[in-house]
Description:
Radius of gyration: 21 Å
Number of domains: 2
Bound molecules: pyridoxal-5'-phosphate
CATH superfamily of the largest domain: Type I PLP-dependent aspartate aminotransferase-like (Major domain)
Strand content: 15-25%
Shape: extended
Number of strands: 7
Amino acid sequence: MDLFDKAYNFHEAEKVIELGLYPYFRVNEGAVDTTVIMNGRKTVMIGSNNYLGLTSHPEVKEAAIKAVEKYGTGCTGSRFLNGTIDLHVELEERLARFMKKEASLVFTTGFTTNLGVISTIVGKNDIVISDRTNHASILDGCRMALGKLLKFRHNDMEDLERILINIQVIIIFSELIGDFSGIIQSHVEFVGQAEAGHPDVFAELLVVPVNHINFLLTFF
Length: 220
Ligand SMILES: Cc1ncc(COP(=O)(O)O)c(C=O)c1O
């Protein structure tokens, strides 16, 4: 059997394209702003993370042009090795001050943030509990981590309790407001549930990604 047979024999996408329902790789014919030109029509963009249209703000564009003139078009290496420039350091220092924290670390995407943070903090003796419909980056981060992943049904406190009753809860991941279903779940309820199921070692950390900004909330 050819390794690529399953790719050659995959026709579902073509069928969906024929039905006019294929949602991916839509082409923007200009700046991806709060509105975009798509198929020649001005269209409101509600799928981007450019909520305020800052990517087209004259000052932001001017700063980007100056940066390209000074640094070129890429960092040519990983942040760990030769890829850190003074702009990264300045950004991280300013973000840390803004968040009133000792330090900050910038990732290039939300996906890599979740992969990096989760796989780093969940050690091999830890258990991580995640809503099963959390963003793929959270679940992938949990899978990459050496610890054990347990999943509960979406926003289902009883299912979460079933898990909490028998284990030592370490971290609960719930997308809450960032959730794709649009349902806003109170994180107070999650923490309450964690404490009820586990009064001694209660939820230490709740990661709340709110529309591309991940907040780490620590409860003591
Ligand atoms: C809650 C959440 N986490 C992670 C991501 C991934 O972010 P990115 O597209 O920057 O990789 C998204 C993207 O929509 C998201 O909504």
